[in-house]
Amino acid sequence: MTAEDVIAADHDYVLQTYQRPDFVIERGEGCYLFDAEGRRYLDFVAGIAVNALGYGDADVARAIASGAGGLIHTSNLYYTRPAAELAQRLAEHSFADRVFFSNSGAEAIEGALKFARKYAREHGHDDKTTIVAFSGSFHGRSMGAVAVTHREKYRLPFMPVMPGVRFAPFNDLAAAEAAIGDDVCAVVVEPVQGEGGLSVATPEFLRGLRARCDAVGALLIADEIQCGMGRTGTLWAYEPYGITPDIMTVAKPLGGGLPIGAILMTQAVADAIHAGEHGTTFGGGPFVASIARVVFDKIADPAFLAHVREVGDYLDEALHDFASAHPQVRELRGRGLMRGLQIDGSAAALREAAHSAGLLVATAGDDVVRLLPPLIAEHRHVDELVQKLGVAFGQA
């Protein structure tokens, strides 16, 4: 099939829920993607923060080849070594005592919300069912996840979604404390918002949420599906705040491009969930878990995280210099290798202009350009980004 044939077949047979550019991606190498016509693109989307190790990582390739010759699937009726080893790694490198595996971030959110309500009920609070989320939040598109997603374009077309959700302004601690009453079983928050515009939770806000949850007996759920696993320069985005959540959801980079999610939790939360109360057919399957072990070990390496911080600092300096030279940039947001540029004008138009310049970027709302490079990015990729962004700004 030619590129035109692929696009035509997609339009004829695939449900049209995505607006895609008019090229077909065929292969990747390092921080670059190549389309069917041979054009090269510097990738600052990374599969929406999934391809943390870029394209063609040798260790991941070996793990896939090795895993393909072993067990692909057994279901969760049986023990398998890869899932047990991956769970141990996740727990030993976080606050968590227990792990539940899912297939995606949305599924992890769904499970986290269920666990929170079950925790309250297990402790004798049948009427403690409200969940507090925040403006700018994005937690997924399934019926529970979209219910705690603030942006109305995702939620309103599917009303009524899961009831019992209350929204408060992000980074407004007084408003959050007022919203978190005795009827609240959980508060769900992204330390760095992704789809919602790359806003970063202030230390006062996140620490205040922890204290208020403790005061009313609610669980704090950290959604690190996009901002976790090294993206902000530490293994987990909650670490610099000096607090720990009760539950954390992770997904995107964990499988190296293969579908896996996880719910990390304290033993107190785990004690509230009993056999048969939650499940999954595919979650934590031996093939995917064996790949995720390799990916996790590489990202959790202190030297790797130091590299992310160093390049993140270089990117921060480069973006500040860029913003000084381009008055269309109103605000810089984000942390580490998860950055946003709020601009005067259309982020979508800037994204299209970037494609023409050989650069892939994402958007986060109408006026925020989102940058999510592979975590293996180097100074030269940042320099190339700035050059191509300049071209795109001149064309948009």
The percent range for helix content is: 25-40%
Proportion of β residues?
15-25%
Number of strands: 15
The spatial strand order of the largest sheet comes to: 4-10-9-8-7-5-6
Number of helices: 14
Overall geometry comes to globular
Please characterize this protein's 3D structure.
By secondary structure, this protein is of the alpha/beta class. It has helices spanning 3-13, 46-49, 58-68, 81-92, 105-122, 143-147, 152-155, 173-179, 203-216, 267-270, 286-300, 302-325, 347-356, 379-395, and strands at 25-29, 32-35, 40-43, 98-102, 130-134, 165-168, 184-189, 219-223, 247-250, 261-265, 329-335, 338-343, 359-360, 362-363, 368-371. A seven-stranded mixed β-sheet has the order 4-10-9-8-7-5-6, with helices on both faces. The longest helix is centred in the last third of the chain and has 24 residues, at 302-325. It is globular, with a radius of gyration of 21 Å. The model has no long low-confidence stretch (mean pLDDT 97).
Give the tags.
396 residues; alpha/beta; seven-stranded mixed sheet; four-stranded mixed sheet; 15 strands; 17% strand; globular
